[in-house]
Amino acid sequence: MLIYHRLGQLPRKRHTQFRKPDGSLFREELMGTEGFSGAQSLLYHHWDPTRLKSSELVRRQPVELLEDDRLEPRHLSSAHFQSSGDPITSRVVLFANAQVNLGLATPNAPMDYFYRNGMADEVIFVHAGGGIVRSVFGNLPFRQGDYIIIPVGTTYQMRCEKDCRLLVVESGGRIQIPRRYRNEFGQLLEHCPYSERDFRLPEKLECIDEMGDFPVIVKMGDALHRVVMDHHPFDVVGWDGRLYPWIFNIGDFEPITGRVHLPPPTHQTFAGDGFVICSFVPRMYDYHPEAVPVPYNHSNVNSDEVLYYVDGDFMSRKGIQTGSFTLHPAGVPHGPHPGTVEASLGKRETRELAVMLDTFLPLRLTKQAAPYLDPSYVRSWIG
Ligand SMILES: [Fe+2]
Hints:
Elements: E1 5-8, E2 27-32, E3 40-45, E4 52-60, E5 74-76, E6 92-96, E7 100-105, E8 114-117, E9 121-128, E10 131-135, E11 138-142, E12 146-150, E13 155-160, E14 165-171, E15 199-200, E16 211-220, E17 223-231, E18 236-241, E19 246-249, E20 268-272, E21 275-280, E22 283-284, E23 304-311, E24 325-328, H1 340-344, E25 349-350, E26 353-359, E27 364-365
Parallel strand pairs: 8-16
Antiparallel strand pairs: 1-18, 2-3, 3-18, 4-17, 5-24, 6-7, 6-27, 7-14, 8-13, 9-12, 9-14, 10-11, 10-13, 12-19, 15-19, 16-17, 20-21, 21-26, 22-25, 23-24, 23-26
The structure holds fe (ii) ion (FE2).
Fe (ii) ion binds at residues 298, 300, 305, 328, 334.
């Protein structure tokens, strides 16, 4: 995260004696990414975070790819997707490659444990619902339209207070704000479609000094491990740094428009390793008197393009519902559906809301995506 943030109590200088009221020392932890060269925070615990009582492999859950990986546009009619479980176990991976997993979750049960993704940053887009993410860094209340960014290694618990539908991205690399939006000091520039004021940072640090058995499920690759700590993991009295979970709401994305059609990089919201995330939001159409508002055909020669349809009518596609995905793979051109170019002429605005994920390595469908496949989509450009 760009912004230095701090919550709770800290010693005046790092790595110096910091004592509890009874005179004993708080335990310092540096949580950093990319060795000692990435984003990092310093946390002060009541107890050493190394105090594990036990560890066991719960299960392996490898992503199973669909064998039928034909090269054609795909549509998943996933509007009525339903899964069961808590905010972690209800996750269903629908698309995957070596760098990123993408899926959905509709949790219907609470979490009675803590969770840590040991190898991936997570972006959780809240299509519907609301609730709170509690973590060692404090609380983050969330609502519809939020992108919740949870850095790798964060111990957290997610509670849905309304029926939630979540789009879940697991990224092997760090989720970042695109480099071109930042100056050399890390400050967001004027052409960025959002500003620092649009970010919501952790608040209300809960410091729970409690001993007992506290299970943390840790995901490492395709394995889920259960480690039991002898104290509550939210025993942090204070922390500071630039590594922590945060939220950006898609409603705060200010679209950039032009006289003629502007390409998807103008919608870019986040950058991952090997992929980008873009937000298509309600906006004015292009205002050249002869403008064609819907996009031209394009060959995304070396990226696969997934669109997740959140709300409104998507201008260039027919037969798509809220909650659908489309995947347009590299290797075959894609473009607007027949009739949509003509229908767009003279239109002044669009109410579409969609999240796009473009990957630079091919993205494969998983076996769990198969029930939602719409076999008619590939021929829908020839009527
Ligand atoms: Fe496209």
